[in-house]
Amino acid sequence: QVQLVESGGGLVQPGGSLRLSCAASGSDFTINTMGWYRQAPGRQRELVADSTSGGRTNYASSVKGRFTISRDNDKNTVYLQMNSLKPEDTAVYYCNAEPYVMGLGRLEVWGQGTLVTVSS
After folding, report:
1. Going residue by residue through the chain (120 aa), what tens digit of pLDDT does each one get?
2. CA atoms of 106 and 19, how far apart (whole Å)
3. How does strand 18-26 pair with strand 29-39?
4. 3-state SS, residue 88
């Protein structure tokens, strides 16, 4: 099986920055797309950004120009650099991946979530 472990959430003032990390661990797997989703209280989970192993990226319009997703394919790790944070970015951020696991095929895996709070 594949597990995702996130880190980097916390409390930040409006206009500040945070960097989230998500590392995939397991055996006999490859991952094409890794990404970040978020869920604010009372709202549905939404895509923030994702990235393929080849470097193609996709961003929600609400974060474009402020957030940057990057990958370290050798470490099976994805990062989310969040700049110019706004109170409306407050949410639990979840890492997502669709690993191909030998013998099991393609799976969908979620991290445990990390809380980002933007408040003065």
Report:
1. 899 999 999 999 999 999 999 999 998 899 999 999 999 999 999 999 999 999 899 999 999 999 999 999 999 999 999 999 999 999 999 999 999 999 999 999 999 999 999 999
2. 28
3. unpaired
4. helix
